[in-house]
Amino acid sequence: MANGSGGLGFGGTRSGLSRRSMMAAMGVAGIGLTLEACGKGDSAETLNFYTWDTYIGEHTLQDFQQANGVRVSASYFATNDELFAKLKAGNPGYDVIVPSNEFVERMRAADMLTALDLSKIPNFTNIAPEFQTADWDPSPRHSLPYTWLVTGIGYRKSKVNGVPDSWKWLYDSDAYKGRIALLSEAADLIRLGAKYMGKSLNGLTAADIAAVEQMLIRQKPNIKAFHEDNGQDMLLSGDVDLVMEFNGDIAQIAAEDDDIGFVVPKEGSLLNADTLAIPKG
Question: Rounded to an integer, what distance in angstroms lies between the CA atom of residue 143 and that of residue 98?
Fold first, then answer.
């Protein structure tokens, strides 16, 4: 990872996997979790799964059903905010959800998640040791880490001047006016803006947040869109030349177009995890 971590506090190498393609491993981390979830209510033969849009492998659900005799009914969300709002209003019947680490913390605080019995999840031992404990989900665990991801800048090589290895090009420059897309999640925007300004994410003050807010207001005329995790599509189609996006999403389109690049800016970034959890209700 680049200079420092504002996310989970552990390092790692860049992954070529994404929210679009990582569900193929669900049988490793999730079988024990999902089978336990299936036991509640009268619909024991159906598991209601609420996950990221375009996140599931082509054959994952079919393979899971064949291996376990459990039908999976999948519904999709685009952002953590959407997931949180839906569950905060009352669980409409979901058995397993896929919140990111920060929202596990928020949902635990709001008493929205079920504590997990790890004795019923033997595949927990297959998770890398550095992911088996987490400050954002202390014992008793209410989630299991499923994927990790880092936020950076995806860019079209032929349209930019060199490698855009600073958050400056997204937050504090008109060099690519109208050709920039940022993530729509406010927490990520604030933290990465603070990274660019040299602030420690462990002690952001109200003044720091206000400074980032003012910088974003100044930059807004240069921004084409605040996207809901579809920045890779905007970059691939030519709608933008620079996009704040997750490493795996950019890796996927880079495999289709060798004019696509990805960089973790020199100021540092956020290392995050998506998880599997069982909502209450």
Answer: 9
**pLDDT 10s per residue in the chain (281 long)?**
233 333 332 223 223 333 443 333 333 334 344 434 444 444 448 999 999 876 777 788 889 898 988 999 999 998 899 999 999 999 999 999 999 999 999 999 999 999 999 999 999 999 988 888 888 899 999 999 988 889 999 999 999 999 999 999 999 999 999 999 999 988 899 999 999 999 998 889 999 999 999 999 999 999 999 998 789 999 999 999 999 999 988 998 999 999 999 999 999 998 889 999 999 98
Distances (CA, A) of 2 to 85, 123, 263: 33, 31, 9
Which residue carries 């109200």 as its tokens?
Answer: 206
Structure tokens at 72: 């999976």
CB 235 within 8 A of CB 162: no
Say which CATH class 151-271 falls into.
alpha beta
Looking only at the bridges linking them, the beta strands covering 96-97 and 180-183 are unpaired
The answer, as to whether pTM is greater than 0.70, is yes
CATH 3.50.50.60 fits 22-148, yes or no: no
Q: What DSSP character marks residue 129?
A: G
Give CATH 3.40.190.10 domain extents, the chain.
22-148, 151-271
222 C-beta neighbours (distance < 10 Å), count: 18
